[in-house]
Design goal:
alpha+beta; three-stranded antiparallel beta sheet
Length: about 325
Amino acid sequence: MKKNELVKSMNLTFNKIGFQLQKKSPEILVAAGVVGVVVSAVMACKATPKALKVAEKTGDDMDRIQNAEESGVTLAGELYTQEDARNDRIQVYSHTGFQYVKLYAPAVLLGAASITCILTSHKILRKRNMALAAAYATLDQSFKDYRGRVLERFGEQVEKELRYNLKAKEIETTVVDEKGKEKKVKETVDVVDEGWDPSKYSPYARIFDEGHPAYMKNAEQNRFYLLARQSQANDRLKSRGHLFLNEVYEMLGFQLTKAGAVVGWIYDDKEPMGDNFVDFGIFEVCREKAVDFVNGYERSFVLDFNVAGDITDALATHQTL
């Protein structure tokens, strides 16, 4: 078989293997690739002592050819020319190359197949990530359009009540007037259930209530604290050119999330991506269960962050060093 035909046959074989591997799980492909690389290295190590013997024999043969060429006769006393030496060297080199191929071919082929497994796994995962990113972008845009339509028709207050399952409730509280006398007044507040789970209402929203270490039993102080953190986040965004949601979560003392490592904000005066600023979307609520205590209900704040979406692709071109 000619060299070109051999190369073409090997390429077709590896392409066929790659096509079949694409149907497999990427986790299995990675595991198989790693095991294959290790096994191929072991096989190459085992073949090395034999290869050293081949090299030693090749050296002896070349020495005999050299001696015969210099003396002009072989060990058997036959006439030996430079043409004979050249032909013998070609035969020795060909035989040595064949022996090396025979010894190392299994290890090389297994190593190549293992690398193919790993590269194919990477290709599969890359395609899946691209599909997920496209699906996320579509879903995110659809949700934003839906919110926009609700805001346009019903207003911001109704949109928040629908989005977070809030309800307006009239409660009776005791206040002290200017003369120092206590009196009961009725107040309408937004109420959230005791078991409120932000993950069910917004992918990024968090609730700032008495369970937070920085919470104080004073609505104004809590509001000032959150606005200060919001200003800090905007300063960091402008100074660096980008900001991840997890950085804001960490700043506020919330647990980090997988989504928070991908979504965030990009700052660009010329071509803004999103709002071009950080907004916590602060609005005040009180807990359903605590309303039963006329003077003891606690004020809380729902934080809904205006992330621009997945910023990983734009990250490289929006960094301020």
